[in-house]
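Sample log: Protein ECERIFERUM 7.
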Amino acid sequence: MEQRVATSLIMTLNEKKFIESALLSEIRVDGRRPFDYRTLTITFGSEDGSSEVQLGQTQVIGFVTAQLVQPYRDRPNEGSFSIYTEFSPMADPSFETGRPTDIAIELGRIIDRGLRESRAVDTESLCVISGKLVWSIRIDLHIIDNGGNLVDAANIAALAALSTFRRPECTFGGEDGQQLIIHPPDVREPLPLIIHHLPIAVTFGFIGKENTMVIDPTHYEEAVMGGSMTATLNTNGDVCAIQKAGGEGVPHSVIMQCLRIASVKAADITNKIKNSVESYNTERSLRKVKRHNPSTVVVEFGQQGCGDVAKHHMERLNLGSDESSVISHSDDVELGRKLIENDKMEKRNITAKRFGGGTATWDPYSRGVDGNALRASLASRVATPPEIHKEEPKQEKQNETLSYQQSLVHEVTKIELQTKQPKTLKDAVKPRHKRRNKLMANSSPS
């Protein structure tokens, strides 16, 4: 009521008479017919449970949240929901911050009655533990711009936000199976609310001495109308609630006419809401990231990585055995070429995108191996002899290490040259002659 008084002080008498005289000719100031709705636009935010409704110049944003609370004693198996409205002075100069005004309280009650009395939302599905924990749904409605008929716009915003809201899934786990686990959205897909039907609020205004009836009144028409009535219906034609906020009396025949018109408008608005929600769900499914079980991902990539590591490890063992028997240089080159080809094929199949936190598949020994480089690396990896004196100069240590490495390389090369020559029976019995000569040499001095 404060809003209407503040607005009526701004409008002049000629403006009021012009609106009333135009309605006698079934013409409204914005060009609509008496029973025409303004253009309705429904959009959704990036998060689930947020909506924005544009009805002409009226703009309302709805946002739905949920939290676990204790249920009421008389309804231990049912969840609850509440509606909060916020009127900003930016939307209308007559709105004030702080204490809610009468129009704010009336707006919240109309929407709450339409949802609660009709049981549009299944509150029993919000129960987690009977008598202990239930989900409490909170609907916040923010008035961004007041262009008239805030009740209808806020009701559509609340229904659209409820249709796209999803609550986290809860399960029981732990050692005793009694621990409540709330799964985040990246682990399990959230659950939507169970909505049986959509109660649509349709507001009628009565203007002038003749009580000319209009639907979806604008901000200026609200300033001159003598009374209003809001009827909440669903697509089945069921009357969920009726709100008559004082003013001029309305006969029974006019109320029945309003209900028939509201039933048609409710069906049209319901189709618009469902189409908008369906398109939003389609876009959400397209941009939704595919979720996998973390343990499955680890096992899958772990098995692949272990297989690759085992494969390279076997190749390294084969290479080591070949080197221990001093393979020829041509065999080294051929084996290195095969290793390089296998490494290229594995790099094509295993990319960085497939890395999922499992065992790493990178192997530093996947390149080709050269015999000369291998002999040099083996010589360089040999541990230096233990130091006798800690205060020995560094230069002498380096010289000893270098001479030791050169002797090892010389011995390896000598063995390789010997193995390349064809072996005979004489070579097989040679160690026995050496031992005999050694024994004779040792016994001769004595």
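Observation: The two ends are 134 Å apart (CA to CA).
Observation: The first helix runs from residue 2 to 8.
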